[in-house]
Amino acid sequence: MSARKGMLSAGTFCVDFNKSIARWPEQDTVTEVVRIDRQGGGSGYNMAIDLKRLDPDFPVEAMGVVGDDELGRFLWAECDGRGVDRVGLRALPGGATMSVDAINVLDTGRRTHLFHPGVAATMNPDHFDFSRTGARILHLGLPGAHAAMDVPWRGDANGWVAVLKAARRSGLRTNLELMTTSAARLAELGRPCLPHLDFLIVNDFEIGALGGVETRRTDGSTDVAAVGRAIDAALERGAMDWVVAHFPEAAVAGGRDGTRIALGSVAMPSTAIAGVNGAGDAFASGMLYGLHEGWPIADSLRLAHAAAAASMRAVSTTEGVAPVAECLALARRWGLRPTPE
Description:
This protein has helices spanning 43-54, 70-82, 159-169, 183-190, 204-211, 224-237, 279-292, 297-311, 324-334; strands at 7-11, 14-21, 33-41, 60-67, 85-92, 99-105, 111-116, 137-141, 173-176, 199-203, 242-247, 250-255, 260-264. It is α/β, with parallel strands linked by helices. Helix 4 (183-190) crosses helix 5 (204-211). The two termini are 35 Å apart. The mean pLDDT is 95.
């Protein structure tokens, strides 16, 4: 096994203003925010903190850009408090740290994100220096959220491709996090990245967009067989060892060797759910932790589901995630949903 160890969590770092409302309002009306809190957010931040909550001794590094402002200093302090090496998280002068209003709607459990990019719009491949990292895996995101990364870069299809190629040349294994947007946009930004990935952990809609397969039925439910076909299509387009697609009821993992495993999610009682913001990041953190540690894929899936369930106990993106043993105990107590066919 490689002498490298740990995760380099890179890309999107922002500050989330998590706001809970009873129901989604009509336009031109007034709605009370019943709860608000400020937390770190973004795929880079969430992965870094989730992994440290799962295992405080697990080495985690952060890389990306923030503003030279109070919100940027807040994110630095959060990383310092959790023992995340944030030397690679650079403060850029003259602009604001990316911020997000994350609206959690209590009567539906749905969420909506309104974001201001700030200096994150200028992040580009020159901001990624892999010369000093000792990490084994790069977790990178989010295509669609960074204007300078989303366009062609020095002969590559986009900046994401350039960064992934540089990471692999430096000896890192790679995983990409996506931002759910239109299927066409996901395919445009994500497909060129697939040949430069070792892992891909996404949701059912995202894998459908990458694979060119409709994975959701007209009633909104997930077509598990279609998810499998989309995984096959993504594996054909890319270099991944494992592709994992998750959705509320289950997850499906597909290996380059032809292995296919599906596992039901944690049967969490609705009364225990405070919010779903960050559940996908928590799932990915559990999955990548298991893959890093060389666990069997079924055990990695179980931890991924357990971490996602634990995260939903809190409105914020990371506060609900607990140590590995506690997450797995939670899953045993609530049990898993039946494995889908």
